[in-house]
Amino acid sequence: MDISVVVPLYNEEESLPELSQWIKQVMEEHNFSYEVIFIDDGSIDRSFHILRHLSQKDPHIRAVRFSRNYGKSPALNTGFKMAQGDVVITMDADLQDSPDEIPALYEMIKEEGYDLVSGWKKKRYDPLSKTIPTKLFNATARRVSGINNLHDFNCGLKAYRKDVVKNIEVYGDMHRYIPYLAKNAGFRRIGEKEVKHRARKYGHTKFGLDRFVNGYLDLGTLWFQTKFGVKPMHIFGLLGSIMFFIGFIAVATVIILKIVSLCNPDFHFYLTKSVYFYLSLAAMIMGLQFFLTGFTGELIIRNSQERNSYQIAERLGPGED
Ligand code: UDP
Ligand code: MG
User: Fold this and answer.
1) What are the φ and ψ backbone dihedral angles of 125, each rounded to 5 degrees?
2) Residue 129: its pLDDT value, please?
3) Nearest ligand, CA of residue 8?
4) Nearest C-alpha to atom 23 of ligand 1 is from which residue?
């Protein structure tokens, strides 16, 4: 099979017939063998009812319905597990992404050798309250992830080599950073294609302004996981040592001042009035906390399934393992 189109959706009843018809038309024009996988993320409107009708009429259409609204990332992850096509294309259900882009995206994966191609909505039809923070968000994401050629990390329209989607796990709200996840899994040929964007035709956006706060927090989490995910002691041990060092200097200063005050009746030193005393206490407690956090992290990793799972790119010579 050439292409799997994965469409996450939450309450998009108005768009579905038009979207599936449009995808079908593009696929038939280009003679692609394909499937369209709709993931209904717990819609409370008639979305799934409509999908049932569509799938009865068209064998290319597959659909699953979540029992409740889990989010866009879980929906994508489920679609990725189901996908069978050589190239997997994700798009939003709200008709903001155009199926006309599919052939060119397919070409970039198949012919130009990209692992992942992300759409770039250069001209956007979204309110300013969204487009301006998005620019900032993308600049940060570029810096943190080191993927410098992407303008639009969170574009819903993306194409992947099948290998990529089978080897990444999108969870929480991490759909914003799929290129970063792919890069961490060793897929480095990440490209971009300018795509046409359209205003939302029906319904309304499913994400509020908290998307930016959550987006930044998730980026921090990913960065941390990438750097220290399997070796937390490298960061917590370092912080603990710094604190320990500060505490040591502070304690030494307190002791020296005390000795001086004992030898010299004109010099009064009161332990509880000294900043060094409090500094030494705080530093010791914090240092200990850092070390304990580091050790706890190491213990958790020691018992995690992931601790020794590596992505093998190629093998040579006889034998399976
Ligand atoms: N979506 C989803 N689950 C959610 C929220 C959104 O599957 O909890 C889908 C939504 O139906 C749409 C896509 O994710 O197909 C993008 O959402 P939306 O258009 O609201 O985002 P925006 O375009 O405003 O960034
Ligand atoms: Mg949208």
Assistant:
1) -115, 65
2) 81
3) 1
4) 205
Cα-based angle 104, 185, 38 (whole degrees, multiple of 5): 50
- The parts of the chain modelled with pLDDT lower than 70 are 321
Instruction: Note the ligand closest to the C-alpha atom of 170.
Output: 1
Q: What pLDDT is recorded for position 128?
A: 84
d(CA 202, CA 206): 12
Q: Is the CB of 170 under 6 A from ligand 1?
A: no
Distance CA 265, CA 245 (A): 31
pLDDT at 241: 96
Distance CA 268, CA 279 (A): 19
- Ligand 1 centroid to 190 CA: how many Å? 23
- With residues binned 3-state (H G I as helix, E B as strand, rest as coil), the percentages for the chain, rounded to 5, are 50, 10, 35
Closest C-alpha to 60, from 21, 15, 8: 21
pLDDT at 231: 94
Q: What is the pLDDT of residue 305?
A: 86
Residues in Cβ contact with 71 at an 8 Å cutoff, skipping those fewer than 6 apart: 41, 172, 173
DSSP three-state, residue 51: helix
Q: Which residue has the CA at smallest separation from atom 24 of ligand 1?
A: 205
- Which residue, judged by its Cα, is nearest atom 22 of ligand 1? 205
Residue to mutate (ligand 1; options 70, 94, 129, 154; most atoms within 8 A of CB): 94
Which pLDDT belongs to residue 101? Answer: 97
CB 249 within 8 A of CB 241: no
> Which residues have a Cβ under 8 Å from the Cβ of 140 and sit 6 or more positions away?
216, 219
What is the dihedral sign for C-alpha 47, 8, 20, 122? positive
Q: Provide the pLDDT for residue 209.
A: 83
Rounded to the nearest whole angstrom, what is the distance from the C-alpha of residue 163 to the centroid of ligand 2?
A: 27
